[in-house]
Design a protein that fits this description.
It is built from seven helices and 13 strands. It has 315 residues and is α+β, with helices and mostly antiparallel strands.
């Protein structure tokens, strides 16, 4: 549902890279004059490629989705001892702790998980090559057996002896190759077990209880992203992260009351930077997001010496 909350943001007039003119409610207004109405955005995104290819195999969490709840966590803060400094506008302190713990665990184990997964992929490719070698040896053995049957049919004792020796040598070669495959499969299972063990730690050491999972459900806003052009899971995962950054950008309508700039002489350099239809940069430091929104309404209260500006990044 759309919600209205007093959430800090920054409005940048003009070209920020040129003049760095910054307007915030702390400068021209009060917290009570700032409202943020969220319409739709996403906190959990599933990614699918060709033939329902997923990111589960390359995602450090092992999940088919990526997620971010920082919008709802804000402005929660805790110190090094995990003592709460400031609570969230939305979530309980326990849920914020669990989500932040989960993020820290991912950061702690992701390098190790990614290394194991990379080795696992190399071993899987090696296994494919060794399987191909095994299949070639099996075909060669079948050819030898066919020749042996032919030699027996014509009762050629000398030929039977030579081909039987070939058969024994090929069977020994096959047994050796099968041993190589068995060893590789054992290695692979070991790497898989290690990855699953680390993923289990990430999932379970964060401190999520059944009650916290139930609370979290209220903040799970799901969306699917599909692109059949992707046939490689890693490429799908890398681009899914970029796509998620775009989708998690809140669709907002912001109304902010500020002092009447046109009556503040020292701010006259901003007078030509507030016009209907202009673009204003909005920054959410808590989500590390910034984007452009358009001024869709300006109301002047000359008696109250203030201006009400409505900005939106959605129609």
């Amino acid at each position: 549902e759309a919600q209205t909350k007093k959430i800090p943001f920054q409005l940048v007039l003009g070209d920020n890279e040129v003049n760095n003119n910054l307007i915030t409610y702390r400068r021209f207004g009060s917290k009570d004059s700032v409202t943020l109405t969220t319409d739709e955005f996403v906190t959990r995104m599933y990614a699918f490629g060709h033939e329902d290819l997923t990111i589960a195999g390359v995602n450090p969490t092992g999940q088919m989705y990526i997620e971010d709840f920082s919008f709802f966590i804000y402005p929660f803060q805790r110190d090094a001892n995990k003592k709460v400094i400031k609570s969230s506008h939305f979530m309980s302190d326990d849920l914020c702790h669990a989500l932040l713990n989960h993020q820290e665990l991912i950061q702690t184990y992701s390098a190790q998980i990614n290394s194991l997964m990379s080795t696992l992929l190399d071993k899987q490719l090696e296994l494919q090559d060794e399987n191909t070698t095994l299949q070639e040896l099996e075909l060669e053995l079948q050819s030898i057996i066919y020749r042996l049957d032919t030699a027996k049919a014509v009762e050629d004792a000398d030929l039977i002896s030579r081909i039987s020796a070939e058969k024994s040598a090929k069977e020994a070669e096959l047994a050796s190759q099968q041993a190589v495959l068995n060893s590789l499969n054992t290695e692979l299972q070991g790497y898989k077990d290690n990855v699953e063990d680390l993923r289990f730690r990430v999932a379970n050491e964060a401190g999520f209880t059944a009650e916290l999972h139930e609370e979290l459900n209220y903040y799970i806003i799901e969306r699917e992203w599909r692109d059949d052009r992707y046939i490689d899971a890693q490429e799908l995962y890398d681009d899914a992260i970029k796509r998620f950054v775009q989708l998690r950008e809140p669709k907002v309508v912001i109304t902010v009351d500020i002092e009447n700039l046109f009556e503040i002489v020292e701010e006259q350099y901003l007078w030509d930077k507030l016009a209907l239809g202009d673009l204003i940069k909005i920054k959410y430091p808590q989500m590390d997001i910034e984007y452009m929104a358009r001024i869709i309404e300006i109301n002047y209260d000359f008696d109250g010496r203030s201006i009400s500006v409505t900005i939106a990044n959605t129609e």
